[in-house]
Design brief:
The complex is a heterodimer.
Chain A (H helix, E strand, L loop, with lengths): L3 E5 L4 H12 L3 E4 L13 E4 L9 H25 L4 E5 L15 H21 L5 E6 L7 H13 L19 E3 L4 E2 L2
Parallel strand pairs in A: 1-2, 1-3, 3-4, 4-5, 5-6
Antiparallel strand pairs in A: 6-7
Helix pairs in contact in A: 1-4, 2-3
Chain B lengths: L2 E4 L5 H12 L3 E6 L6 H5 L4 E5 L5 H9 L4 E6 L18 H22 L3 E10 L18 H20 L5 E6 L20 H13 L10 E3 L4 E2 L2
Parallel strand pairs in B: 1-2, 1-4, 2-3, 4-5, 5-6, 6-7
Antiparallel strand pairs in B: 7-8
Helix pairs in contact in B: 1-6, 3-4, 4-5
The chains are: A alpha/beta, B alpha/beta.
């Protein structure tokens, strides 16, 4: 077994495909709905694929996209802290970049993701000294097939970003960035 | 006479902006939320209209907007802040505090903008008081152990971006302002020791920035009390 991964929200095509890729590659996959923190001692990766779209209901969208991921992280933090991987993965979208978006509607989704981004930046501040790293990923839903996005996400989660030589000038693992499935990096 | 609506006018920057715009000869609609503060009533000015306004409540915002027929400018200033138990350092996190901050600080300003947009005339200016902690880029390595306020302000900046995308070409103009750390005004009118700036001083700077035209109205930027621009 290569490691353990906890995946949320496998109802989405992307989540389903990502769970399949992790299993195929020899990882032990837990699903948040089916697992209690009491039953697992160590987790390497938290893969939160929550991406609730298409509603203009602010409260529902915010509870799905922000409150739920916060609760999941809090719930499984001790297991993640005990694991080797210490990597947290979240789904977002380039259209939820304050710098980049040119859209004129879809407030609820974009605002919830902006709040999530700021939460993750503060999580990074909190957990980075303890060896945690984060991934914020745009699966480009609707633009590319979900299985292609899942293969891309798998490599992004399991590989180290940047160099291995621990030179802070050449290593951006400690920086929170938003990358899409085709490798573009988007600003916040 | 040019008219302006200011939310969270009970005290602090909101109150200072009311005084400043009354002195500039504007008609001022002041959003009042706190029952136990009477600074607004004590201004006793013929051009001042006090409105009940709870930024966490859609109906309250709609009711306030109904009372206004025409408006040149509004300033979304009210915000929910302060100590909440929502830190990964001290579980359990108060996740309802995250929703409450988002509702008042991000959903409220958007709802207000949407309710007032059809009534706006002249410079059609939408002003939003934001914060340096809204900057996701610059939050890196800034110690912060309470999540809700920075999260809600980042979401508000996003709301303003999308409003700008939609409304700038329809003649609306925008201001995003970071006022700095202001001293809290006690009920007896004295300023608290904590904080760096007197809200009256910031109010003068903000009032001018909100009202005066810019060379680059097409560009959405967050500007602070010193005139410096902040990234998102």
């Amino acid at each position: 077994m290569k490691g353990t991964v906890l995946i949320t929200d496998v109802q989405s095509d992307f989540g389903k495909n990502l769970a399949t890729v992790f299993s195929r590659e020899g990882y032990k996959v837990y699903l948040t709905d089916a697992i209690s923190p009491l039953l697992v001692k160590k987790l390497d990766f938290l893969v939160d694929t929550t991406d609730f779209r298409g509603s203009e209901n602010m409260e529902q969208t915010f509870r799905e996209n922000v409150i739920k991921p916060m609760a999941t992280l809090e719930k499984f933090l001790p297991q993640l802290d005990a694991g080797e991987g210490k990597r947290l993965f979240y789904v977002s979208s380039a259209e939820a970049s304050i710098n980049e978006t040119r859209e004129k509607s879809g407030f609820a989704y974009k605002m919830s993701k902006a709040a999530l981004h700021q939460f993750l930046q503060m999580v990074r501040n909190r957990l980075s000294p303890e060896g945690f790293t984060l991934r914020v990923f745009d699966p480009m839903s609707g633009e590319i097939p979900a299985d292609t996005a899942a293969e891309s996400a798998f490599l992004y989660i399991t590989r180290r970003r940047g160099t291995e030589n621990h030179d802070p000038n050449r290593d951006d693992e400690t920086t929170l960035v938003l990358r899409d499935a085709e490798g573009r990096q988007h600003s916040w | 006479m040019q008219s302006v609506l200011i939310t969270g006018a009970d005290r602090g920057l909101g109150l200072s902006l009311c005084k400043e715009y009354l002195a500039r000869g504007r008609e001022v609609f002041a959003g009042k939320y706190m029952e136990d503060y009477d600074f607004l009533e004590n201004l006793r000015h013929k051009n001042l209209h006090i409105l009940r306004l709870d930024m966490g409540c859609e109906e309250s915002i709609a009711e306030a907007a109904e009372k206004i027929t025409a408006l040149d400018m509004f300033i979304s200033n009210a915000a929910l802040m302060g100590k909440v138990d929502c830190s990964l350092y001290e579980p359990p996190m108060d996740l309802e505090a995250v929703w409450r901050a988002f509702n008042v600080n991000a959903v409220g300003p958007l709802t207000l903008a949407q309710a007032l947009a059809p009534k706006m005339r002249g410079i059609k200016r939408m002003c939003f008081v934001s914060s340096e902690v809204a900057c996701i880029t610059l939050m890196k390595n800034r110690y912060n152990d309470t999540f809700p306020y920075p999260m809600s302000k980042a979401a508000m900046n996003m709301a303003v971006r999308v409003l700008h995308n939609d409304l700038y070409e329809k003649g609306y103009t925008f201001r995003l302002f970071h006022p700095g750390w202001m001293k809290f005004r006690e009920k007896d009118g004295t300023l608290a020791e904590q904080g760096k700036y007197d809200p009256d001083d910031i109010g003068k700077i903000a009032a001018a920035y909100f009202e005066e035209p810019l060379r680059d109205e097409n560009r959405l930027v967050m500007v602070d009390y010193d005139g410096y621009e902040w990234p998102f």
